[in-house]
Amino acid sequence: MFFNPSSKSKSSVYGNTPIISDNKNTFYNIEADIQVSGNIVDIKQDIYLKSPEKDIFVYIPSSNMAATTIESVSGDGDVKSSVQADTNMEITCEKPQSKISINYKIAMDSQRQILSYSENCILLTEFLITPAVYKDDKPVQTYKWPFGDPYIYDMNNYRITLKADKGYNVFAPGEKQEKVSGDFRTALFEAQNLRDFPLVLIRDANVKTEKFGDTNVYYINSYPARDYITAAMKFAQKNIGPYPYKEFFVVNAPISSNEGMEFSNMVFLSDNCFTNLQNLERVTYHEVFHEWFYGIIGTNQLDQPFLDEGLVNYLSILLAGDKLNTTYNNSFLKMHLNDYQSKEQYINIAYNDATIYFYDLHKKLGDSFYKSLKKLYNEKKNTIVYYKDFIKYFN
Hints:
By secondary structure, this protein is α+β, with helices and mostly antiparallel strands. It is built from six helices and 22 strands. The protein has two domains: about 1-205, tricorn interacting facor f3 domain (Immunoglobulin-like, Sandwich); about 300-395, no CATH class. It has helices spanning about 225-240, 275-290, 305-320, 345-365, 370-380, 385-390, and strands at about 30-35, 40-60, 65-75, 80-85, 90-105, 115, 120-125, 130, 135, 140, 155-165, 170, 175-180, 185-195, 200, 205-210, 215-220, 245-255, 260-265, 265-270, 300, 385. Strands 1, 2, 3, 4, 5, 8, 11, 13 and 14 form a nine-stranded mixed beta sheet that branches.
């Protein structure tokens, strides 16, 4: 997220249904049927597990921003209990399960946030129940927090069916099949190796599509950001590594003032950013670089939020040619997201001080800084990197 001022997972592998591409070696592990009616989202979801488990841990990220009601939890056998605590749920079964099914309902409000409803635009992000990330054989616990990005995901393969009013244009990553019948539009998406699955529904969308290498870049009411998107992607591909996906969506979104947000294969740029080109440039660079640090290379945004935010903020300032201070407080190295007492403190430390830290690191290493980024990309893409592992590449 932009503010203006290897883990082990027992659940991160796949079921046994091939995706649209007819590549019989590719399978999905998260399947969801989604129906949107006004501000209510009904979801019937299956999660396929790597191996049969009796105790299954999942995240409920939507409960961070919207009222989320779990209506039923079932498996191939009896489910003894499903206990929800904050944004986590532990499901205990009588016998090991290969698949767990969850039906739930989300009631969105109209606030300017990344999971929200309006008549002309529905933002469905950080909303699907997702298998927990494991570290040292224990599930990483998530929690609600009023700022920052309290999410962590392994890579998942998604098969998503959406049914909504036919008046909406629907955008999401992956291969797409779509039809309109009566008053409804139904879209099927199948996507591989994503940390999250974002969905955007917009009426009267102005969409421009351009090629960047092998990637189709979709500008959704956002074409004024085109030059900044291109510059950031060129910089990242040159200095970090290739962008491995076929789609990238740039959405002018009704979210908080002068901010942006990253998702897998998609970035949000606040509608307010488009009134100030200097701010649009910085926010765009920041969110694009998150596609590499958050998306391709995962981080723990709960325990080490500085790692991706400080690094992408530094790279965005570097590309923009802005000047930086030379002193910083390194307290961010030991601060979890919920250690920050205010959004202002979070920006000052996890963003600003961490930015100078990476600037200082770059000064000390010179050109080998980029060599280290490339090596990190090549060896750690599609995993989650923690600071103790990250820093080994830069010693």
